[in-house]
Amino acid sequence: MTTARAAGLAVCHTCLALLGSEEHVCHRCGSRLHERIPDSLQRTMALLIAAAVLYVPANVFPIMTTDQLGRTEESTIIGGVILLWNLGSYPVALVILVASVLVPIGKILTVAALCWTIGRNTGVPARQRTTLYRITEFVGKWSMVDIFVVSILVALIQITGIIVIRPGGAALAFAAVVVLTMVAAQSFDPRLIWDERRDEAGQGGRS
Amino acid sequence: MASELIQAGAIGCPECDLLGEIPALAPGERARCSRCGFLLAVSYEDPFGRAFSFALSALIMLLVAMAFPFLSITASGISNSMTLLQTVSYLADYGADVIAFLVLVFVILVPAIMLLLILVLSLSLRRHRFHPLLQAPTRWLFHLNAWAMVEVFAIGVIVSLVKLAAMAHVELGLSFWAYLAFSGLFLLAFSSMDRLTVWSVIDRIRRSGT
Ligand SMILES: [Zn+2]
Ligand SMILES: [Zn+2]
Q1: pLDDT tens digit string along B65-115?
Q2: How far is B20 from chain A (nearest CA, A)?
Q3: Residue B32 contacts by C-beta under 8 Å, 6 or more apart in sequence?
Q4: Which residues contact A177 (CB under 8 A, 6 or more apart)?
Q5: A186 and B146 in contact by Cβ < 8 A?
Q6: By CB neighbour count within 10 A (0-12 exposed, 13-18 middle, 19+ buried), where does B95 fall?
Q7: Which pLDDT tens digit goes with each residue over A150-197?
Q8: If you placed Cys at B74, which of A51, B47, B79, B157 could pair as Cys (CB 3.0 to 4.6 Å)?
Q9: Mean pLDDT across chain B, nearest whole number?
Q10: Does A94 touch chain B (CB under 8 A)?
Q11: Interface membership of A43 toward B (CB under 8 Å)
């Protein structure tokens, strides 16, 4: 088994063409060509830290405010989950809990852990780490569900003219968390997981 | 014809960098990286005809979804309905411009742009033509997919209905069903545009042109 890098080649991430690693632009699709994503780990970690910091206001501030008969009620992400649970809507409470709490936190921790394992001999098989990476990439967009729920509620309730629901400050922070974690997962270069394995095999490699 | 769409030959895996050979694929077959399992290519019988019909139907469904009432609500005797675009405009009215913009982009704009790209590209490749100006948009098509959230929005609507069930009577409009159909057709249209097939065919068109 030989890698493209060992053969002096680079794989285009858009069209999968094989090109010389000294090329800068793909002949076939015109993508900028990188043998590895430049500064992948630093960029990924920086985006993850930004996401983790923003996750605090996303949970502390209300994601929406309800004005009804002169009474103002604020609800946070967790507050919404608890309310749904108490109303007996268990499946929906779980959907929001998974999409808004477990997925963002799990994603930040998983991608950070993947970054941490690069260059360290952790004994976790590369194939398993690749699977973890693919799961985080796949579930990323599902966190937007709560943002969409808020936007639908805001619009739908307005047309009744009795109750007013306004989007809260947490909505913006939470949307930013989702976008940042998605960009972070995209900046992570999964080839790094396999590079180190090749190094362990003693074939050496440039970096 | 379908088996020659993807040329057999050397290929690199974009996720683990392994070099390998891609075999000639019969329709319905897929090729995966032998080391990391990355899905390298899926072969379809007449992929561009398939992509075109799914994309056209999806676009029609999206237009229907935007034209008719999406949800109707009855609370305290007052009944009213809203359209898909109103979800965005009400957010903007309450100062959540950025959120409104993100919803518009992820739920309508990105999927619509992708569908138009698929329509133009599949029609052109099927007729064995490729204008150089199409190169950049073809590239975007494969990167935009990460930001299309049609199926997530569909789940969001269902969650909203459950949340509202306690305080009001909500009815699903024609547009809601159109949007569900749109999200399914959209996924089918994009998955028909296998990237290795697309770029191999573009390669071949270019070579036969010179
Ligand atoms: Zn390329
Ligand atoms: Zn691979």
Answers
A1: 999 888 888 877 777 788 888 888 888 888 788 889 999 999 999 999 999
A2: 8
A3: B38, B39, B40
A4: A51, A54, A55, A58, A104, A143
A5: yes
A6: exposed
A7: 888 888 877 766 778 888 889 999 999 999 999 999 999 999 999 865
A8: B79
A9: 89
A10: no
A11: no
With a threshold of 0.80, does the pTM exceed it? yes
Alpha-carbon B100 to chain mean position: 21
Burial of B24 (0-12, 13-18, 19+ CB in 10 A): middle
Q: Is A84 part of the contact surface with chain B (CB cutoff 8 Å)?
A: yes
**Cβ separation B82–A159 shorter than 8 A:** yes
A153 touches chain B (CB under 8 A): yes
Q: Which of B14, B90, B163 shows the shortest C-beta gap to A13?
A: B14
Torsion of CA A90, A91, A94, A99, to 10 degrees: -150
Residues shown for chain B: 210
The ipTM, to two decimals, is: 0.88
Total residue count of chain A as it appears in this document: 207
Residue among A47, A34, A29, A81 at smallest CA distance from A192: A34
Beta bridge partners of B172: B71
In the CATH scheme, what architecture does the domain A37-206 have? Up-down Bundle (1.20)
- Quickly count: other Cβ atoms within 10 Å of residue A189's Cβ: 24
CA atoms of B176 and B182, how far apart (whole Å): 10
Segment-wise mean pLDDT, segments of 10 residues, chain A, 207 residues? 88 91 90 90 97 95 84 88 86 88 94 92 90 93 90 80 82 94 95 73 40
Tokens of B121: 């590209």
